[in-house]
Amino acid sequence: MTAQAPSPLLEVKNLKKHFPLKSGMFARGGDLVYAVDGVSFNLGKAETLGMVGESGCGKSTVGRTVLKLIEPTAGEIRVNGVDIAPLNRREMRPYRLEMQIIFQDPYASLNPRMTAGEIVGEPLLVHGIASGQEREDRVAELFRRVGLRPDQMRKYPHEFSGGQRQRIGIARALSLDPKVIIADEPVSALDVSIQAQVINLLMDLQDELGLSYLFIAHDLSVVEHISHRVAVMYLGRIVELADRVELFVNPKHPYTEALLSAVPRADPTLDRSGRQVLTGDVPSPISPPPGCHFHTRCPYAVADCKTRTPELREVAPGHWAACHLR
Fold first, then answer.
1. φ/ψ bin of 134: left (φ > 0), alpha (ψ from -120 to 50), beta (otherwise)
2. Which of 13, 15, 100, 275 is at a distance of 20 to 30 A from 113, taking alpha carbons?
3. pTM to 2 decimal places
4. How far is 217 from 195, CA to CA, in rounded Å?
């Protein structure tokens, strides 16, 4: 008798988020922005799923919708088997303990009128977990865990560097002992040398605490370093999902091939003759192309691609792609 695979901590099925376009020169009644248009994935214990794609592809909207910072238009968001998509604000409170977020901008995500200690300890007060000296002690331990000194708790955000501010954001995310953390481009606003320190900190915390990350980024080298699996998004849809090594060595979707061929390499001996250069602009999410959203820029597109939406299907063991030609 074979053992069953453990259930994923987070399951997302056919998630959609469509924003009404209410203002602007080109707005018409009933217009929608199809920011997320049928995304499905799962996340296991102590796993990092990297999510990559061009700016505006919907990856940050996926992260915020999974946390219900933005209400989904349709789809399921299952946390330990429970669909939280239909829950109201009060019903969501217990699940706020399970999932937290690290924001992209460490300058904008911290309240400048609160001390660093107050920022990290605020979730403990909001959820009634700790107050007084107990809260103070827990915040001091969180500071140590992310590489800050407890005596820095009295300082304000402007007194810290960018990397230190992001460590404060990480400590705040850890304060409720979550199982899942949405990391929304957590190093893109930092210097390259500081990026490595923060990435290594996140990996160490995962090893120590068994955390699961949905790691959203546009830097493929960062995603390759930290992720176990990688999902590639294009215009609101996942077009490829695979193990990190498999995806970087053997991409199946033309868009993934183009992304990887565009990564700069420092080796002058590399043969660049096979490099793919995408033509045309990314279509508008207000009126995405029919069929495969990528067909307007795909060098391999056939007639079927223009009319029929490809399903994300398993084209090799553990390797999923949304392409009619695979």
1. alpha
2. 100
3. 0.91
4. 12
H-helix or E-strand spanning residue 75: strand 74-79
**Whether 201 contacts 48, CB under 8 Å:** no
Rounded distance between C-alpha atoms, residue 107 and residue 85, angstroms: 30
* Pick from 122, 108, 225: nearest CA to 171: 122
The token duo for 186 is 């957590």
DSSP code of residue 70: S
Compute, in degrees rounded to 10, the torsion defined by CA atoms 197, 201, 203, 206: -170
- Alpha-carbon distances of 279 from 241, 264, 272, 299, 302, rounded to whole Å: 24, 18, 18, 9, 16
- Tell me which residue of 323, 305, 306 sits closest to 314, measured CA to CA: 323
34: DSSP letter: E
Give the residue among 238, 235, 312, 297 at the shortest CA–CA distance from 55.
235
**Could you list the pLDDT tens digit for every one of the 326 residues in the chain?**
444 456 789 999 999 999 998 765 555 556 899 999 999 999 999 999 999 998 889 999 999 999 999 999 999 999 999 999 999 999 999 999 999 999 988 888 999 999 999 999 999 999 999 889 999 999 999 999 999 999 999 999 999 999 999 999 999 999 999 999 999 999 988 888 899 999 999 999 999 999 999 999 988 989 999 999 999 999 999 999 999 999 999 999 999 999 998 776 655 554 445 556 677 778 888 989 999 999 999 989 999 999 999 999 999 999 999 999 88
290: tokens are 């029919």
